[in-house]
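User: Fold this, then the next.

Assistant: Folding the first:
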Amino acid sequence: MANEVIELLIEGGKATGGPPLGPKIGPMGLNINEVVNAINERTSEFEGMKIPVKVIVDTETKKFDIEVGTPPTSALIKKELNIEKGSSNGNPVGNLTLEQLLKIVKMKRGQLLANSLKAAVKEVIGTCISMGVTVDGKHGKEILKEIEEGRYDDKLSQ
């Protein structure tokens, strides 16, 4: 089995048969529309963001698999808050609800180093702190302290 891997950076939900995808896939004899549709289906939740995508092609059978990465945590936070950039002076630029924070954690879960949901939440809160983003109206350090005290254990036990 000879696999060929094509790595691309594509805007979520907006892959097309044109460059960069078409010229790389066309010579392999794949149905470009099938590949484009599969990528768009898998990346639609990241609309408006550049997403790393791998197309793994079995050159003998012409079957393919799509692996979708996720944008950086900071990009997911900015999209969720609809802001251009984080704070450069420590002043708050936005506030995530705990539900929004958990949504981001679930999107990033596969790429985070954390081995539990609680640890993953703490990792994303660290990014919030560096960006000047509060969580439920509180500074990230305060939320981290509350997590350590077990105040969110009911929501973070999955």
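Now the next one, as you asked:
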Amino acid sequence: MRAMADRAQRALPPIPTRGVRIIGSGSALPSRILTNEDLASVVQTSDEWIVQRTGVRTRHVCDPRKGETNTALCTEALRRALAAAHTPASELDLVICGTITQDCRCPGTACLVAGALGAGQAAGWDLGAACCGFLYSLNTAHDLIRVGTHRTIGVIGCDTVSNIVDYRNRGVCILFGDAAGAVVLRATDDTSLGCLAQVNKADGRSWRDLYIPADESWIGPDQDRSVIRPGTLQMNGREVYRFAVTTFQGLIAETLDKAGLAVEDVDMYVSHQSNARILESARERFGIPEDKLYINIDRVGNSSAGSVPLCFDELVRAGRIKPGMLVMFIAFGAGLTWSSSLWRL
């Protein structure tokens, strides 16, 4: 007993800390483009109605006949990220895939991607946090590297939402598209690089505002069973919009406060593309210049976990994000969940 007490009183060795770099990014979009006019031919809507309410004009959707699947998009996105990082897949210690639209329940998409790319015995798991899937995964991967248990990690965000959308449900089908994005993280001796502040939160009390009922037992007594199809995405648009507007603004403020920074200190805000009106509301609230809050929802729609890494990769390829910048990633979605990650790149 004395020996156990003595051991308990000894000072634990300090946790090793390292910097973390994003050394490469990549993304993948399906080839098929679904326009607002296309949707107007199958559901009562119009281009003007959709644009006014969401800002979406087109979105990409998978064509399985062309081999466009969740796994295929994830694999291509990470392949491109590895190429940009000049890093072979064999150097990956871990692959994390943020997704809720796996092609099969088992094995996880991360394992399928690691196998397809030749990552050897790299660990792999999927993380299901809907639109926050990529950011939850990014924050997890960052901290694993920071404490010294991993050196190189591939992080993917992807959702093929077209597989879970009922195209008779106007309130849902107009918003969503399919996309994948990925980054490669690596340890560095420069401890000034990496995540300066992060927020990961959820409130499960409001889960029914945005969810996928597995069967009829998951449909609430106050919901119209005649219009709800099990296995498809259901959304209380009014409540989700209210949640997103309020959360977005609070999330930015909380993250900046944790880092001891001001709005103008951040070089770029890379946000989940939920709705153009929500993004504009936050931009106006904080006085963020248009060129600091990237928007691509008009071209690709809301791609859930794929939206943040897709935006990041487009910005990198356009030369608008460079080493040394301060970048804040932001997301919110089903759960209800919300997350942020403020990085010195």
